Recover the amino acids of this structure.
């Protein structure tokens, strides 16, 4: 346990950084989903199964979907613009 | 403000605030050494006082129920705002055609996807219900279970297409679920006052420790939260999905899902 | 190790702010805001953890077993769900801004006017920084 938790914290820092540094929103969606998954695993490691369950459902399913739909709505809105 | 100025300002703020942050971090108790006295007392007292096994649910629905009432109405307000903004331009009517980017092929849905969704959909719903119902015994509760249930309805969209999704999900029901859940939670606070107890006092029989029906009023509040979150998130998905439909009747034949 | 979780929380918050400050796309910006949000989760749960503590659910373990702090978990739990709806609200505002302004770039955001289509920043939405800074 003493090794796993620091590793998980580091993973969280890396995946959070990845969300920021991936500039293309279409790719960022996947970074967000991965970040949600890593956070869920970290929360489970921190003995918070309730929070992990919530983060798993919200962070890696619901929120990326909302981002995808927003992206799609924005992209298809003005077809006269460059595709 | 140009990006360069903004970054300079941010760097300046970071320079000023970093020593403060370092000071605060140094003042915090070392990670994993101790927990706050409040949590310690809750862990010690609540299993006997409330007959529930899950402390997180006990805090959410009983000890700090008022906070959850506030959260519940924040949820309601955020979703209402989203729906109002989305419907403001579109109106409530919906169209049968999906918008598509010109030049992108529409790939027909394969039978494997339909089968997988038909199997996974009911299983997801079952798991969501399990998580909702076991709020006071095992990890779970209305918040998590509600999101799982709402995500499960998306499998209908994936497997059956837009028409099947609209047939299964009705916006009015979702409004009723969302508002009714919030109302139920508020009533859980008000009804105890009719009996002379305090606001949100747990007046129902507490049940047996580790039993599914333990926790008294918490079960009703949990149900209220589950209804509100399920309805709210499904409403959110529904309205977002509407946003990807064509604004008016396009002459092109719709994609195969219609 | 004793300060690593707090350092990670501070780092996440800082990198999220950096992303917000440098973002050229509102959708990307909302994602960065989510990183800032996750920093608070990491901080709260890190504060509530105790080595060797069990999850605060006394089903398999008898009550009285040393457990982690349930208050922090309750705080984070509700915030995750409510935060998702707020993310949805922000995304909808983004869509509206794109509908009215024609661009997702925060640099090109103009004040809304009653007329509706004000400050239409059509065309190539990715102009280089130098051209941007003149406006």
């Amino acid at each position: 346990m003493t090794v796993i938790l620091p590793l998980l914290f580091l993973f969280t820092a890396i995946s959070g950084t990845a969300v920021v540094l991936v500039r293309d929103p279409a790719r960022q969606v996947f970074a967000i989903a991965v970040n949600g998954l890593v956070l869920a695993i970290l929360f489970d490691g921190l003995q918070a199964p309730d929070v992990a369950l919530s983060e798993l459902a919200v962070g890696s399913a619901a929120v990326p979907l909302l981002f995808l739909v927003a992206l799609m709505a924005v992209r298809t809105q003005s077809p006269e613009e460059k595709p | 403000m140009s990006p360069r100025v903004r970054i300079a300002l941010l760097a300046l703020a970071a320079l000023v605030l970093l020593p403060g942050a370092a000071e605060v971090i140094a003042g915090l108790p070392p990670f994993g050494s101790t927990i706050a006295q409040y949590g310690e007392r809750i862990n010690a007292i609540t299993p006997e006082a409330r007959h529930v096994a899950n402390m997180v649910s006990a805090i959410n629905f009983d000890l700090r129920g008022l906070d959850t009432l506030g959260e519940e109405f924040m949820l309601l307000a955020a979703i209402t705002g989203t729906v109002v903004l989305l419907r403001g331009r579109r109106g409530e009517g919906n169209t049968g055609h999906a918008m598509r980017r010109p030049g992108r092929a529409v790939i027909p849905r394969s039978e494997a996807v339909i089968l997988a969704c038909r199997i996974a959909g009911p299983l997801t719903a079952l798991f969501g219900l399990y998580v909702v119902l076991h709020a006071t015994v095992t990890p779970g509760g209305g918040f998590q279970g509600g999101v799982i249930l709402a995500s499960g309805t998306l499998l209908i969209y994936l497997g059956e297409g837009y028409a099947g999704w609209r047939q299964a999900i009705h916006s009015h029901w979702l409004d009723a679920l969302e508002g009714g859940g919030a109302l139920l939670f508020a009533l859980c606070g008000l009804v105890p006052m009719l009996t002379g107890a305090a606001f949100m006092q747990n007046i129902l029989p507490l049940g047996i420790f580790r039993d599914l029906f333990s926790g008294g009023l918490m079960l009703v509040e949990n149900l209220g939260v589950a209804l509100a979150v399920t309805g709210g998130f499904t409403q959110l998905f529904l309205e977002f999905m509407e946003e990807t439909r064509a604004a008016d009747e396009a002459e092109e034949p719709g994609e195969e899902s219609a | 190790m004793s300060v690593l979780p707090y350092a990670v929380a501070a780092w996440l918050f800082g990198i999220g702010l950096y992303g917000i400050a440098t973002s050229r796309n509102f959708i990307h910006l909302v994602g960065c805001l989510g990183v800032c949000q996750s920093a608070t989760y990491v901080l709260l749960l890190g504060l509530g953890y105790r080595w060797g503590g069990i999850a605060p659910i006394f089903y398999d373990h008898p009550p009285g077993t040393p457990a982690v702090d349930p208050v922090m978990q309750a705080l984070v739990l509700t915030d995750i769900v409510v935060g998702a709806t707020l993310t949805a609200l922000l995304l909808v505002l983004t869509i509206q801004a794109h509908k009215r302004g024609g661009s997702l770039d925060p640099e090109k955001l103009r004040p809304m006017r009653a007329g509706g289509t004000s400050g239409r920043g059509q065309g190539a939405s990715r102009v280089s920084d130098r051209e941007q800074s003149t406006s």
Notes: Chain A touches chain B at residues 49-54, 57-58, 61-62, 65-66, 69-70, 72-73, 75-76, 79, 83 (CB under 8 Å). Chain A has a mean pLDDT of 88.
